[in-house]
Amino acid sequence: MSKDKYSRKFCVAPMMGYTTPHARKLYRILSQKTFLFTEMIAASTMLHSKTKDLIIENDLQNPIALQVGGSDIDDLALCSKIAKSYNYDEINLNVGCPSKAVQKGSFGACLMQDKKLVRACLETMQNASDIEVTMKCRIGLGNDLNYDYFSTFIDEIVQSGINIIYVHARNAILNGISPKGNRSIPRLNYEFVKKIKKEHPHVQFILNGGIDSLDKAYALSKEHDGVMLGRLIQNNPFCLGKVDKLFFSFKGEKNLNKKIILDYFNYIKPKIGNDSIFRLLSPLLQIFFGIPDSKKLKTEIHQQIKDQEIDNLESLFLQFINLQKKSILS
Ligand SMILES: Cc1cc2nc3c(=O)[nH]c(=O)nc-3n(C[C@H](O)[C@H](O)[C@H](O)COP(=O)(O)O)c2cc1C
């Protein structure tokens, strides 16, 4: 049985360069219930980097998982302990990333070729600490879809005792295409996820890949244990304001309003000087997603970022909210 109490009906996918501590803070302001993920952090970085907190800091962003990349059993055991000590609810092993750098480090999707090693990693991570251990994987490797390959892989993995598996429902192609291509070229197959759930009804399988609207996500959440969305949230984090009502029957939705901006600025202001102002603000810049005629304001914001004028920046974002309100009312 799973140790934890959180629903994973709606999760934001781990995204390197995007699901930073600051983006996660914004996501949490917008939704209380969404299950969050960090970016992937390599186990060696987690163990040895002095700046690891720039990735793994957890400012009460629970429910949240820390995603790790690695295949060294001893390192991963230590990572489990660190995740627990940073108050994460879960540590997730990345078995889905196809990048060349990750393959060189012997982790990510190439680990699907060594299911016994993945099982051993997951067992050791569970034994090391009292934290939920999970995995994120693909449905296979290479050009051809092969359900038996996926099913044999999962059969081995569930013997580790883990109870939650996130599935990016397309193969990974390890040679010849980029990580970006690997998110669109291999074709999606949600049926594999439905089928594997029937074989392992006690395991939660969270569906990921190609879910590009909240309506689709909601419909799919009825057919699966939960859904995980990446690029929709990367492009338009503000849609998270609808998630608590839609998925968790919470009262009210959070439309874009001044309080969201003020809360976020209250969070970043003390951090200026410790982190770049661009990194601190970049989650908020998605506010212009799909808004026509915002070029002038965007240019002004970029200038103020260069000038490090945080109070002016706050005013510009508040001004934007006012303009939006007026255009809705007019
Ligand atoms: C910019 C970017 C960075 C990503 N970084 C990671 C990562 O660190 N770990 C991981 O497991 N997947 C990573 N992914 C893959 C996503 O987690 C997700 O599986 C993929 O985008 C498919 O979901 P989507 O169609 O909802 O975007 C990344 C995706 C994007 C777009």
* Estimated structural class: alpha/beta
* Beta-strand share of residues: 5-15%
Distance between the termini: 54 Å
The CATH architecture of the largest domain can be given as: Alpha-Beta Barrel
Q: What would you report as the Rg, rounded to the nearest angstrom?
A: 20 Å
Sheet with most strands:
8 strands, parallel
Number of helices: 15
The ligands bound in this entry are: flavin mononucleotide
Examine the coordinates and then state which fold CATH places here, giving the name of the CATH topology of the largest domain.
TIM Barrel
In terms of per-residue confidence, which ranges show pLDDT below 50 for 5 or more consecutive residues?
none
CATH homologous superfamily caption of the largest domain: Aldolase class I
CATH class label of the largest domain: Alpha Beta
Widest beta sheet: strand line-up: 1-8-7-6-5-4-3-2
Instruction: Please provide the ordered H/E string of secondary-structure elements.
Output: EHEHHEHEHHEHEHEHEHHHHHH
Average pLDDT: 93
Which range best describes the helical content: under 10%, 10-25%, 25-40%, 40-55%, 55-70% or over 70%?
Answer: 40-55%
**Total E-strand runs:** 8
Shape: globular
